[in-house]
Each structure stands twice: as structure tokens, then as C-alpha cells.
Amino acid sequence: MINQVKTFGFLTLLTVIFLFIGSYLAGPTGLTIALILAVAFNLLAYFFAHKLVLAMYHAKEADRTKYAEIHEIVKDVAERASIPKPKVYIIESDSKNAFATGPSPKRGIVAVTTGILDLLTKEELRGVLAHEISHIKNRDILIGTIAAMIAGAISYVAIAARWTALLGGAREDSPSVWELIALSIITPLIAILIQLAVSRSREYLADESGAKIIKNPNALADALQKLHAASKTTPMETNPATAHMFIVNPLKGSAILNLLSTHPDINKRIGRLRAMRF
User: What would the pLDDT profile of 64-77 be if each residue is shown by its tens digit?
Assistant: First the structure.
């Protein structure tokens, strides 16, 4: 519940920032154009991004005979979560990771690497799949798209403000050049940080709800511990734009990257799971 409230708060804050920029620039026409572009771009992303991501990682639908155990786990967890069984995809990679995608619970997809199958026990894999199915059940793909839409709209307006300042096209009653430049730099950064916070809050929620579905938080905690360690020794060649989708961050982190990480601190995630009681 707390993470859902946080998500609502973050999305509201993004919306307020967006409306503030539009009001501050006093450009309703430009605001409308930016919003239309942002909505159009993110609608395309929502309906087609999952196909692009699966193609990007050369994911193939899992053979029902060869990967019967995974299909069995996904079916059982999906039934417990009261959603249709997601499609299962396999990524041929020694890296150990997994993600969920798809535009709705009725068209959900879970993808796992072959490396994760060699690393985890059946119960740990069950914990991972419960986490991913929770993302689908909680409509995190939709929520992520809404956050991206608003953050993208803020970026579009900020870019317009920057060009207005550089080209000297501001009206006499408009903000000054320096105000426009400051606005164009600061607001997109704030929007990105809020968008990342939304992603982190949804990760916590998927951990919690996934553990509740299978009534075994330690299974997911053990899996996260193994996956985090494995990500250091067998990193995955990942497009940074898709890093937020994976159960553990596939990117090697520095202090700055950790600040801008789409994932919560792994020790905090594990600690929360260990503290859960049924």
C-alpha cells in the first residue's frame, strides 16, 4: 500500500511540474503540441515496445517440452495471482536475469535468460517468476509508460524553452533568457529523478506482492542475492534504456549510476523480504 501511495505521489508531482512549466512559459499552444507528441510517442511505446525489446535480446518463445518446468511454474503462479498465464520467452545468454513486458495482464510476457536457469533452484526461480508476474498484475508497464509520457512531455517543453532562449524568440512578457535556460536544464533532471523513483517504488511492490503470491519471501531474497553477485561476474550487454525492466540491474554501477539507478539498493530489497512474515 505504501509503495502504491508513493507511486501516485510521484506521478502527481510529475504532472504538477508539467503544468507549472506550461503555465510559467504561458504557451498553451506549444504545451498542447508537446503533450500530443509525448502521448503519441508513448502510446507507440506501450503497444509495440515489448516486441522491440524481445527482438533486441533475440528472445524466443520457450518450447513447452524443453522448458516444461518453467511453463508449469508460470502457470501455477499466474493462477495464484488471478491473471491469465503469460507467454514465456527464453534469452540465450550466460548472464543471469529476467524481465516482464506486455501491454496488459491479458498479454503479459515473462522472459528469462538461460543463465538464470543454471543458477537458481526451482523455488528461487519461482520467486523470480512471481516477482515478474507481479509486475504484470500490478500493471507496472502501464504505470511506467504514464511516468515516461509525463517526463517526456516535460523534456519536449524544456527543449522548446531552450531553443526559444537561444533564438531570442521570447515575448516581452515571457520569462528571461536565463530563466528559460535554467528551466530547460533543471526541470528535465527533476523529471528523470522522479521517473526513476517511480521505477524503484514499483520494484519494491513487485518484491512484496510476488513474495505474498507464493508465500515464500526467502525464495526471492535468496534469488536476488545470487543474481546480484552473478551480475558482477557475468554482466549483460544491455541497452541502458531497457535496464529498468530486469529484476536486477544489469549495468555495472558507479556512485553516480547508483543515484540514477532504476532499481532500489539490493540489500534493502533483500532486507525487506527477510523481514516479511506470513
Answer: 999 999 999 999 99
